[in-house]
Amino acid sequence: MLKPLLTTATLSLFTLSGFAGENAAPSSHMVYNDASFDGDILINEVRVPKNGEAMYTYYEALGWGGKAGGYAGIQAHPKAHNYIFSIWDHKEHTAPIKAVYHGPGTLTENFGGEGTGLKSWNFELGWDTDVWYTLVSRCWPVDDHTLYGYWVRSSKSNEWTHMVTMDVATKGAYFKGGNDSFIEDWLETGKKARTTHIRNGWKRKPTGEWHAFGKARYSVNSWDLVEGKRSFNFKTNWNGGVAKDKTGEFYFMTSGGADTQATATNPSSHSIKRSETKPGYAPAKILSASAKSAEGNTVNIEWKLDPKSAPQFSIEIAAKNKAGTVVLEKLISSPHTRSVTLELPKGMAASSLSFEIRCRDIFDNESKMVKAK
Prior knowledge:
The chain is mainly beta. It folds into two domains: 8-271; 286-372, Sandwich (Immunoglobulin-like). The chain has one helix at 8-16; strands at residues 28-32, 41-47, 57-64, 70-76, 81-88, 98-102, 106-111, 117-122, 133-142, 145-154, 160-168, 180-185, 194-204, 210-212, 215-220, 238-245, 248-255, 268-271, 286-293, 298-305, 312-320, 326-332, 339-343, 354-361, 370-372. The strands form four sheets. A nine-stranded antiparallel β-sheet has the order 7-8-5-4-3-12-1-15-18, with no helix packed on it. Strands 2, 6, 9, 10, 11, 13, 14, 16 and 17 form a nine-stranded antiparallel β-sheet that branches. The N and C termini lie far apart (52 Å).
């Protein structure tokens, strides 16, 4: 797997210090039953139990292929608990991948190694063990490009954070599956067991139909388990399948640790019965909106959303005269935009108009219409 946060110098230091060898916890995967169709939204919830945290571990929850293949997850990194989102370059891209939005604390940088592309990481937001985190990525077309947004929700605070939006210079770069979750020890620390929990996964078809991840294929990288390879000394110390606690059923993978024993085969199939027809996150809610006259024949519209409601995908603004007739409409498909300046028709003053605003969230639910004051 790609190790986007390790530099060549760092890897050399680890090798000289004796870390390179056969002591990595086995890399393991949970691949879901969505390989037969493309998607424009991917969702998974990930949790690291307290006894499953191990330094130098990547707990990946979203992994996809296609013309903008990439992955997203959380890491136990020496610097801090980290969120990561990366997209690989592809021969059909007509320009380098770039970030058009950075959330608070998010950094981006080009990567190399097992492919090239653009990576983002965020050490400031943080994550805790024994807490579920919802990871969502949505892609959408803009002219002849495809944009990819990445959002995170903590079940501890119930708040959403928009982490990054990346611009990929190619058309129709949908998520291709099956979506892959994995667990990886990138620094040969297999003596410590690490565990990831995954649940409530979804993929949405471009037509709007939702598909729940009710089945998954668990596997361990068998080529790493043979003598001379990175996981040989922990070749039998892995496990995966379905478990249950008071929150319900979830997929799990455990890797490394001298006491870890398999109850599943490599590979093996697992399932969780899903009765929902779509994700159940609270739809977008606009807390306030304002409209103020600006220079010339313009008006500034600003709005705030409830961070505990689903994140914004687009905003619709309507200007009405005193008779209630719509004289101007504006649709803004920009998840991070929270203000806009509108140019009014000639001879029309902002004081003679009322302004209404409605949000469509990243799951395409609509908020209530709110009047700007």
